[in-house]
Amino acid sequence: MRIAIVNDMALAIEALRRVVSSSGEHEVTWMARDGEEALRRCREDTPDLILMDLVMPVMDGVEATRRIMAECPCAILIVTASVSTHGELVYEAMGYGALDAAVTPTLGPAGELEGGRSLLDKIAHLGYAIGHSHPRNAVGALPPVRQADSGTQPPLVVVGASTGGPQALAALLSGFEADFPAPVVIVQHVDPDFAAGLAEWLNHRCELSVRLAANHEVPQVGEVLIAGRDQHLMLRPGGFLAYSPEPHELINRPSVDVLFDSAAHYWLRGGIAVLLTGMGRDGAEGMLSLRHKGWHTIAQDESTSVVYGMPKAAVTLKAACEVLPLPAIAGAVKARLKPLLETSQKI
User: Fold this and answer.
1) Domain range holding 202?
2) Per the structure, how many domains does the chain have?
């Protein structure tokens, strides 16, 4: 791929340049020292991918991301030196269309690179997402369903999101009151280093408790659980959550499809699935599985999506019962929960 580097620190630029050049597959097409220069260069020569810093003079990375995605869109990976300090800026940039975030590699005292391999893996992953064909492999055989009393389970809400997801998730969750009667489980495509910060950021933007999902816990009413590892988050027999490295072959990890497929098998009470803005098609086939099991499925519409990829794939497969603008989704979820809760009370 043709990759551009936007950073105001000489050492960071050199580290990024060495990482890209070391791959043997990619080339540095241009470099810029601030967001305004990056915007100008991007208008003249749009690369396949931009490695975008956040804190820069003249124009920062958030504004540069917003302007580039509006005027000369291309794939943008946020690369920042500090996860804890710049977490909120990361989620803001992702709301404007940045695909993901990574930690800036560093040059050691002897000139050795630290963190280069993980950045190259991230670049390779994005390479598939922005145009390389990579057919989704089957999630694989799931363990047999262990029958449980579905009447003891509340309905479940499962959500998948990618590009533009943090802002969309904030909008969705802010529409749920403190007495929201269902647990919520979310897969958002984001680097694991930023997952805890995302949960905290969302926790301050809604009335529900938002935190990272833990291994072997059962989703509870009033909680929002977010996948927080470089592994798939799935439901298992008995309705508890588990992290797993398998299936290894899936490009997205965690995968929305894996969560959705497992919910179709193991959350016997049923519920509602929501597929929000995002590049690619992750979640579409899993949503179809849920619809076949009687779940109500909602896809975000094109007009309110930052990238109409994942929801569009669900619509194409006829996996979505409804296609709605983002501001209408929370109300639709609450309306669809009412008959499920009434059924639960009769059991």
Assistant:
1) 150-346
2) 2
pLDDT computed for residue 124 by the predictor: 86
pLDDT, residue 26, reads 92
DSSP letter for 228, please.
-
Instruction: For residues 222 and 283, state if they share a domain.
Output: yes
Contact (CB, 8 A) for 346 and 160: no
Tens-place pLDDT, residues 99-134:
888 889 988 776 678 888 889 888 988 887 776 434
> What pLDDT score does 81 carry?
83
Q: Are 120 and 96 in contact (CB under 8 A)?
A: no
Considering the domain architecture, whether residues 125 and 157 belong to the same structural domain is answered as: no
Give the residue from 100, 129, 158 where a domain finishes. Answer: 129
For residues 125 and 130, what is the distance between their CA atoms, to the nearest angstrom?
A: 9
Q: Is residue 296 part of a domain?
A: yes
Are 39 and 66 within 8 A, CB to CB? no
Threshold 0.85, pTM exceeds: no
Taking only the tens place, the pLDDT of each residue in 154-185 is 999 999 999 999 999 999 999 999 999 999 99
Contact 290, 181 (CB under 8 A): no
Whether residues 94 and 46 share a domain: the answer is yes
The catalytic site residues sit at 162, 189, 282
Helix (H, G, I), strand (E, B) or coil at 35: helix
Classified as helix, coil or strand, 300 is: strand
Token readout for 125 is: 């992953």
- 255/171 Cα distance (integer angstroms): 22
Contact 74, 50 (CB under 8 A): yes
Residue 87 lies in a domain: yes
**Cβ proximity of 174 and 326 under 8 Å:** no
- Does 82 share its domain with 204? no
Asked whether the bond before 247 is cis by omega within 30 degrees of 0, the reply is yes
